[in-house]
Amino acid sequence: MFALEKPAGQAKPGRSSGGLPKMASVGDFSVLSSSIPATKVELSVSCRNLLDRDTFSKSDPICVLYTQAIGNKEWREFGRTEVIDNTLNPDFVRKFIMDYFFEERENLRFDFYDVDSKSPNLSKHDFLGQMFCTLGEIVGSQGSRLEKSIVGIPGKKCGTVIVTAEELGCCRDSVLMQFCANKLDKKDFFGKSDPFLVFLRSNEDGSFTICHKTEVVKNTLNPVWQAFKISVRALCNGDYDRTIKVEVYDWDRDGSHDFIGEFTTSYRELSRGQSQFNVYEVINPKKKGKKKKYINSGTVTLLSFLIETEVSFLDYIKGGTQINFTVAIDFTASNGNPSQPTSLHYMNPYQLNAYGMALKAVGEIIQDYDSDKMFPALGFGARLPPDGRVSHEFALNGNPQNPYCHGIDGVMEAYYRSLKSVQLYGPTNFAPVINHVARYAASVKDGSQYFVLLIITDGVISDMAQTKESIVNASKLPMSIIIVGVGPAEFDAMEELDGDVVRISSRGKFAERDIVQFVPFRDYIDRSGNHVLSMARLAKDVLAEIPEQFLSYMRVRGIKPLPAPPPYTPPIHMLQTQI
């Protein structure tokens, strides 16, 4: 268990007696925020062969971590490790605890200094170099262990840094609980009450946030509710002593449910399980204030409490599952002539067009989870040289045998090159590119690979029936589809493919899972013209569902994560003194 910490922006690092900041973990875990972090990870830092800046002894290194704000790209100090005296191979004890979201690109910078005095001012110490990476790069490396060269001092070898990420366990626990009640107050004139429970977790400012409602049990004063499962994060944000308030209501058809009473508890109390400690008096404060003889409005008893540790998305990534990213771009004539500024494919030398922005926003995050960084890039709806045949599944790099491009920059290059060689045409058919990726996904169903297809399109789909059939078939495979709509068209048909409201079906067969996420790019355009923000918002929305879609495939197939490779154990050095 770990205590909640101040958000990074508010934290004032504590001072040790030596004057250097003590705090290495300032997690941005605001309980008021609607998006609860996917999980928390703990970063451990080690270095090998640091530069030696001291004349008579070895360097006394410290590591300082910075994170980057999305909008203005400003680097902010996140925390510092301790100082370790007299070593070029430090294994820092103090960890950095960070929130991890799959759908966000978290840029990190690790700076290293040789500490020469007690001053907390970094400019007073010798700079030993730095390393840039993303949190996704660390998590996505084999065994969540990233080893990279330290750079920043021209002409010098600055050594290497090893950063390992470990998911914090408490984020992954769920609890299965069941409650019953006895002798609740009768609230209905003609019958008994129809009781249900509402669970609320307390926030730092004393307010409460609802986190669970039970079903209604009709016409009884002694209800037994069904067991329910809730994550420990949702129940108490990982703080076992935080107050949990439970309110008891009598359900009314018109929504004006009658308050019967309430009680408070905590995760730690509940975890004692069924016992005399977990029988709670339901108190109605109004009645208690009015009636001298008032005892309670009934009791609620905990019948069972079972902790389950969920396997997480990161368990699979750590066990070596690769995420394969494929992009498919719409080359239909409705996009407009690429040489004209009005075209959605316009090649503006000064800024990315909407296709480029969507591709980069999503691709730059997913590429961290793909070790070879080779991405198939396809186009559809164009006439191809030399004979002008129409293709709905062509390689952007012109090589159908090997459509792979190196990195997202390679995909961008192939996209711009193909705009100069193909003729925009039509119609807008999705099924061929979906089936293309599905063929690969069908050949690897053991959980070692998962496929994400990004389709970027300007419009109205021509092969709706075939696309629906392709999606229904693909829902049985380890794949997800992201569709980004660019331009001003009406995208009603796309909403139908995104099975959030009604699960998609074809010929009476329903999709096994919801695997499609559709968003119109225009919803993300920042009014101030800040494209970095537009891209970050787009990526956040389209990628947020991927971990759950990924887990739903693994659960249905009963695929467990592979064990992670053995953890890195640094060579044992002489005990270091720390200030």
TrEMBL record:
- Annotated Gene Ontology MF terms? calcium-dependent phospholipid binding; metal ion binding
Q: Which Pfam families match?
A: C2 (PF00168), Copine (PF07002)
- Region described as Disordered: 1-20
Q: State any GO BP term from the record.
A: cellular response to calcium ion
User: Chaperone: present as a keyword of the record?
Assistant: no
State its role.
Answer: Probable calcium-dependent phospholipid-binding protein that may play a role in calcium-mediated intracellular processes.
Q: Does the keyword Repeat apply?
A: yes
Provide the family line: Belongs to the copine family.
PANTHER family from the UniProt entry: COPINE, COPINE-8
Name of protein: Copine-8
C2 domain sequence ranges: 21-148, 157-280
Which keywords appear in this protein's UniProt record, sorted alphabetically?
Calcium, Metal-binding, Phosphoprotein, Repeat
* GO CC annotation: plasma membrane
Any idea where the VWFA domain is? Answer: 324-525
